[in-house]
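pinned: reference chain
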Amino acid sequence: MQYLSTRDKSLRVSAAEAIKMGLSRDGGLFTPVNFPVLRALDVEMLRGMSYPRRAAYIMGKYLEQFRPEDLGLFAERAYGPDRFDAPGAAPLRQLDQHTWCLELWHGPTSAFKDMALQMLPQLLSTSLRMTGEEKTACILAATSGDTGKAAMEGFADVEQTRILVFYPRDGVSEIQRLQMATQEGDNVGVCAVEGNFDDAQNGVKRIFSDPAIREELAGRGCFLSSANSINWGRILPQIVYYISAYCDLLNAKEIKLGQKVNYCVPTGNFGNILACYYAKRMGLPVGKLICASNRNDVLTDFIRTGVYDRNRPFHTTMSPSMDILISSNLERLIFDLSGGDDQLVRSLMGQLEKTGRYEVPGEMREKLGELFYGGFCGEEDTASTVAMLYRCGYLIDTHTAVAAKVLTDYRRETGDMTPAIFVSTASPYKFCDSVLSAIGETPAEDSVDRIAQMEAVTGVAAPARLAALKGKAPRFHQVTKREAMENVVLDFLK
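pinned: its structure tokens
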């Protein structure tokens, strides 16, 4: 299968090239030429498989040039018991007769990004070999909190790679910051940016599109690649858990084969819900795609009006991984909904860069309304949802609470009681201060002490790797202005 750029569909590359490059040279995102069909027979077969085997099978449909036995080995390494502390890697928790929560945070960094970033380094390393690449891949990533640690953990000491992560200095939780600042590995680096996530993300994109930097790095034996969800190797593993969750519902006899299920996904950069949309494109019986935002509700407005407008106040919230106003993966959706109209994509993305705003054609707006529901959750509702579910015996983080509340709003507004899965993207222990406050406790002064405090209060065990942060000395302290990010990259790659 080949992959093409959303901004120039005449540009086609192999899967290995798409994963290696991360971002197309024209600034577009790689997307598959077509989507493999997921037949009822495939689903029946997947039901009897373990999560790693499901992952290898599904990804194999998109990675035809990769050997099936290699994909099987990669999946066993990525999702085995030494990396994930829950059976099946991505378990479902039932809340009531119609509602389940898909827990995606049982990996080494306690965030859903592990589901992709335990796989991507293996896919990238193989892609380098398959393309005969001799240069070192320098992975640049902007993070709103979770991608950074998950990417650093995945790429730590991986041969022929170096990874540098940028994060907004005041836009991540203290636990997220400590996770990144204490990361081990000789090939990793992290730097705070004075600004928000969009500033960090725009800075990374600017570096990718700068031919002078690319030329300079080539002379040093390096080339740039990405671990953000702009990389197809990030999106592909995420498709798996939506299909896997459907299989688990079938195995539990909660649904019948072919019965539709609604999915509610908390998202900022649109990558996680895009993966669910791609699963639907393959043939998974997905009903409504419910897009859940926090106070930064640019996606809610877009789905409801067809107008994308980032010209609005930026809010720092208790769900910081969603504090985003430029949703990069929306470009892939627009490309697909337009029938592969690369000229339209170029025009809209150009308008976004120049004015911070664009409006999609009327027929696309209708498609959005048919496929998606957009809703947002404010701070008070986020906290009250955490408290409500805690009283019901379920401790969740703030991002998960956004999804739970928006799903409730959707059902109340539409009356649609189709079986639904809402997605849990992070352990509550990554956001102890907000969770403790929501359940009526006063957080301890020290961020790491809050982990033990929440264990004592709730009786819910903390992930071992988060508890191990206590007493661990940070390795990285660098802060840069957004306009100086290029210098940080060049310094890192001396």
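why pinned: The chain has a mean pLDDT of 96. The two ends are 37 Å apart (CA to CA).
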